[in-house]
Amino acid sequence: MTTKRGRAAAARVTAVGWCPDHAKRLYSSRKEARRAGRTYAPGGHPNAYPCDTRDGWHWGHLGAAVAAGAMSRMARYAEVTT
Ligand SMILES: [Zn+2]
User: Fold this and answer.
1) Would you say residue 4 lies in a domain?
2) Could you tell me the pTM of the whole model?
3) Which of 22, 30, 44, 66 has its CA 20 to 30 A from that of 52?
4) 25: Cβ–Cβ under 8 A, 6 or more apart, which residues?
5) Residue 39 C-alpha to ligand 1 middle, in angstroms?
6) Domain range holding 26?
7) Tens digits of per-residue pLDDT, 52-74?
8) How far is the CA of 20 from the centre of ligand 1 (A)?
9) Which residues are found with C-beta within 5 Å of the ion, ligand 1?
């Protein structure tokens, strides 16, 4: 599923880098990652989790931490957040 929502608001949360391993933005802290998640998915339940290959944090919908090993699913999320 692809959506353009949140693109303008994204500027309010500063990503510190890019994680090519997961094709997701990196945030400096759990707090920043959660803030980004709320920006992209208002009303949702963003879940911040540390990247396992880079120095930073990602966010995903509830359950993403459980699916942390499911790279294909995380890549699918990335399509929404890019
Ligand atoms: Zn990562």
Assistant:
1) no
2) 0.58
3) 44
4) 15, 17, 18, 19, 36, 58, 81
5) 19
6) 9-81
7) 999 999 998 655 444 555 555 55
8) 7
9) 19, 21-22, 51
CA of 27 to the centre of ligand 1 (A): 10
- Structural domain tally of the chain? 1
Alpha carbon of 4 to ligand 1 centroid (Å) = 22
CA–centroid distance, 51 to ligand 1, in Å, is: 4
Give CA 12 to chain center in angstroms: 14
Cα gap 8→68, rounded to integer Å? 27
Which tokens belong to 41? Answer: 């998915």
Assess if residue 1 is contained within a domain.
no
Three-state DSSP state, 77: helix
Greatest CA separation for the chain: 30
| Residue 35: both structure tokens together | 């803030």
